[in-house]
């Protein structure tokens, strides 16, 4: 990430990334199929789902996700969150990455549909579970795009506001 911020995403090569990591380019490609993949990798998604599944069964699925936002604030060290924030800003400001992140959002729908299925006893391919997951991904995407426009914004606060709005039925 340091190289991307110093040189810009487009100007940074895989060879430079590999050299900075003290690995060969072939080793780089064993872990990441593309340069984009280094930025699009999100280590927090599995942690978020695991934490959401651990929430009280009395909570609605969106309520469990909102409670998980508190978990993230408490459990993820500030420096790790700052790194994640820089990654998000890069993703949503670089046109190349912004278009590539759409595939990640599709994966997010699958992940969240599985979460909803576990919480509600439905199947992950259930129409309503997938529709709910798509709505969650949509409000998260809108929150991240908005947060990228304001470097001082706290994405966790904005995502929680988005979840609250979704939970209320998206009133205008």
From TrEMBL:
Pfam families: TetR_C_14, TetR_N
Entry annotated with the keyword Transcription: yes
Residue ranges occupied by any HTH tetR-type domain in the UniProt entry: 1-50
PANTHER family tied to this protein: HTH-TYPE TRANSCRIPTIONAL REGULATOR RUTR, MYCOFACTOCIN BIOSYNTHESIS TRANSCRIPTIONAL REGULATOR MFTR-RELATED
DNA-binding region: 13-32
Lineage: superkingdom: Bacteria
Keyword ATP-binding attached: no
UniProt entry keywords in alphabetical sequence: DNA-binding, Transcription, Transcription regulation
Record's protein name: TetR family transcriptional regulator
Species, as recorded: Amycolatopsis mediterranei (strain S699)
Signal sequence segment: none
């Amino acid at each position: 990430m340091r190289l991307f911020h110093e040189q810009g995403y487009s100007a940074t090569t895989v060879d430079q990334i590999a050299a900075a990591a003290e690995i060969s380019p072939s080793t780089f490609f064993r872990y990441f199929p593309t340069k984009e993949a280094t930025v699009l990798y999100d280590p927090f998604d599995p942690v978020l789902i695991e934490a959401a599944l651990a929430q009280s069964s009395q909570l609605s699925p969106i309520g469990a996700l909102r409670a998980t936002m508190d978990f993230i604030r408490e459990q993820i060290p500030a420096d790790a969150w700052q790194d994640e924030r820089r990654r998000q800003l890069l993703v949503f400001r670089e046109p190349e990455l912004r278009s590539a992140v759409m595939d990640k959002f599709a994966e997010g729908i699958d992940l969240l549909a599985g979460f909803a299925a576990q919480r509600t006893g439905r199947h992950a391919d259930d129409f309503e579970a997938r529709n709910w997951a798509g709505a969650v991904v949509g409000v998260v995407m809108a929150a991240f795009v908005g947060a990228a426009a304001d470097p001082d914004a706290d994405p966790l606060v904005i995502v929680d506001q988005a979840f609250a709005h979704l939970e209320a039925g998206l009133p205008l």
